[in-house]
Design brief:
alpha/beta, YbaK protein, 28% helix, 159 residues
Length: 159
């Protein structure tokens, strides 16, 4: 069954096409719900997998893009991004804000505007893979284009 016809995946694909027609959604035969599963499916370094993590920050939500081999640091997010309160968003909040379920949250194509921060550790990789709206769908992108397509601000937000 093609997952490319699912609404969240189509939303990501439309966003990618508007940015660069060469960017394509890749449907995997196995799950990419976790960074480790995605790296195994793609045969790449786990660090080259972009984790899209939604946090409740003060009175809004923020998307942090972190390398698959790193852990988002609440302390660094607070300190480096000047937030008083930071906590993981609930699964319901993630779905309501982005339109994606956890495991398929894409860096792009959200239902609502959300600030994006990119961890500087992703810069180590020439090729990155990010979720494309479903746990079995990803897209390939380089670090510079990830910054451009998300309007993401680079900072140190992982440990």
């Amino acid at each position: 069954m093609s997952l490319l016809n699912k609404e969240p995946v189509k939303r990501v694909e439309k966003f990618l096409n508007e940015f660069d027609l060469k960017l394509k959604v890749i449907q995997l035969n196995s799950s990419a719900r976790t960074a480790l599963e995605a790296a195994s499916s793609l045969g790449c370094d786990v660090g080259a997998i972009v984790k899209s993590l939604v946090f409740k920050t003060d009175n809004k939500f923020t998307l942090c893009l972190v390398a698959g081999d790193k852990k988002a640091s609440l302390n660094k997010i607070k300190k480096n991004l000047n937030f008083k309160d930071v906590s993981m968003a609930s699964a319901n909040d993630v779905k309501n804000i982005t339109g994606f379920t956890i495991g398929g949250v894409s860096p792009v194509g959200h239902l609502n505007k959300i600030d994006v921060y990119i961890d500087n550790s992703l810069e180590r990789f020439g090729t990155l893979f990010a979720a494309a709206g479903h746990p079995n769908c990803v897209f390939e992108i380089n670090y510079l284009n990830l910054q451009k397509i998300t309007n993401g601000l680079v900072n140190e937000i992982s440990e």
